[in-house]
Amino acid sequence: MDTVWILGDQLNRDVGALRGRAPAEARVLMIESATKLANGRWHRQRAHLVLASMRRFAAELRAEGFEVDYRTASSLPGGLEEHRRAFAPDRVLAMSPMSWDAVEMLTSNGVELSPNEQFLCSAAEFAAWADGKKSLKMEDFYRWQRRRLDVLMDGSEPVAGRWNFDADNREPPPKDGRDWPAPIVDELDVLDAQVAADIEQLCPDAFGEPASGLWATSRTGALARLDQFIEEVLPLFGPHEDSMLRSEWKLAHSALSPYLNLGLLHPGEVIKAAEVAYRTGRVPIASAEGFIRQIIGWREYVWGLYWLWMPEYGELNALDADQVLPPAFEGAPTQMACVAHTVAGIDKRGWSHHIERLMILGNLSLTAGVRPQAVVDWMWKSFVDGAEWVMVPNVIGMALFADGGRMATKPYASGGAYIKRMSDHCKGCAFDPTKRVGETACPFTTLYWDFLARNEEVLRPNHRLGNQLGSMRKLSDLDMVRQRATEIRSRLSAGDL
């Protein structure tokens, strides 16, 4: 009998080697790697989401009649070898994993791989689209996806006459804060309690609050959250998707990425639900288009770039950034209100939305010169939707410009003025976003100008930075700014800011 190996981020009955197979036709293998869990500082809710979801999926397969060999082993190859000794399968089959190293590991251990089906554009299709192009712009890929998938299209033209409504989706947070739909929270059960106890044993350096029921660990729970998002949240999504509020951690973001990344939801069903909501008049076009762009545009673009450029891409460091990860990211006290709030949210939920990741955590790491690989590793283990294929392009290319501009056309660096405009964090903060020198100068503002000066030679050819570099050269206090920036970088690395 064949064995179908289901990895922890492939929890879907209808994809890969398991799709269409009856219980009598294959045995299922699932492995928890004790070494991986013990390696590094995992957020408790990230570990809980993966382990509880795996165990529930195994129970569902057993209820369907499958024989499931679910085991904890020192490593994934070790668990595979134990399974082979116990069952002597004719073949071990698996859907292609979602990381470069995992593909290498499975193929070197004789596992037969089928293409990954958890995306709407395969790595091979993306490579064919990219072939011969001088630049790989996400907008071009997104429009190609819209056409070939026939999403939000009226014949050969985009619905409502425009491809992109992003200009309508950049409003600052509403002054009244607004009431946002409360997230679904499930009651924890016996399985959850066992997983929580196991995490304390298996993950000695685990951090963050334990699971609260906020994150679904079954397909049923994931579908409930998709339904709530479409009906209650998506109508509000568009205008404020780039906003940040102290009083509201999620705003109108879907928070569906953990379920998409584990296989509990498939992108096809998610975008179909959003399009139906638009076409039936329940959701405005700016909200529907903006959300669908995140799924079939940005998410699948990142997936494609990962497979196109790895493994060398993960080691890039074009700006020679060498600072350590700020201790503030791991909970050290900080006077920076926006950083303190974002990190507290990660500790509480293992999640923050994309603007907090890019324009607070990423922006600070970029302008301070933090080593990119340290940021990748921290984000991968800290966020419930962490995955190497997600974090490597988003951090190396988008947030830290460590690829020198292969992915993003300019560095996403900004001073405190952006944070003041798009959030309410600056009110009451110890630092003033309008100041670049002095004890109360906002670190984001000081580091922004220093970043431009420190990297001027590398950034000068970028035509999108001409005005910013010109303004930097005109600063009468640039020497004082750079002196203050040296102090800030030192204090940031020491956890004293």
From TrEMBL:
Name the UniProt record assigns to this protein: Unannotated protein
Organism for this UniProt entry: freshwater metagenome
